[in-house]
């Protein structure tokens, strides 16, 4: 009988000690895998390898419909929703559906009036990061005058 290795924090079991060790980092926050280019760190070696594609611009995943390429398979799967019009994320408050989970989160913040993104220059708050980034142009344009 195969011996299982059990996480002492959450009691999840693994067939190999190396899998337990890798899992345990989710509890400790340890990130020993560091990008040599930008110093970003990762708990998993596989995540570091995926991250390197940002620097190499490698995009091995190609959409069969429009031939757009992506560095991550998950990004390609998310992109396919553009073609299928699939919207699997539904707001429990108003029933509006979204193709991206991040868009659903923005919707929830609209309902709750939460504005976690704050301008460092004037302290104006925004419900999503893209609006904050667009707002920053107000300050850069004022400086150009």
TrEMBL record:
Pfam families in UniProt: zf-C2H2 (PF00096)
Every copy of the C2H2-type domain together lies at: 5-32, 33-60, 61-88, 89-116, 117-144
Entry keyword annotation includes Zinc: yes
Q: Which GO terms describe its cellular component?
A: nucleus
InterPro entries in UniProt: Znf_C2H2_sf (IPR036236), Znf_C2H2_type (IPR013087)
Q: Which GO terms describe its molecular function?
A: DNA binding; DNA-binding transcription factor activity, RNA polymerase II-specific; zinc ion binding
Key word DNA-binding present: yes
The compartments listed are:
Nucleus
The main location class comes to nucleus
Q: Which UniProt keywords apply?
A: DNA-binding, Metal-binding, Nucleus, Repeat, Transcription, Transcription regulation, Zinc, Zinc-finger
Among the record's GO biological process terms, what is one?
Answer: negative regulation of cell differentiation
Q: What family is reported?
A: Belongs to the krueppel C2H2-type zinc-finger protein family.
**What name does UniProt use for this protein?**
Zinc finger protein 112
User: Which gene specifies this protein's sequence?
Assistant: Znf112_5
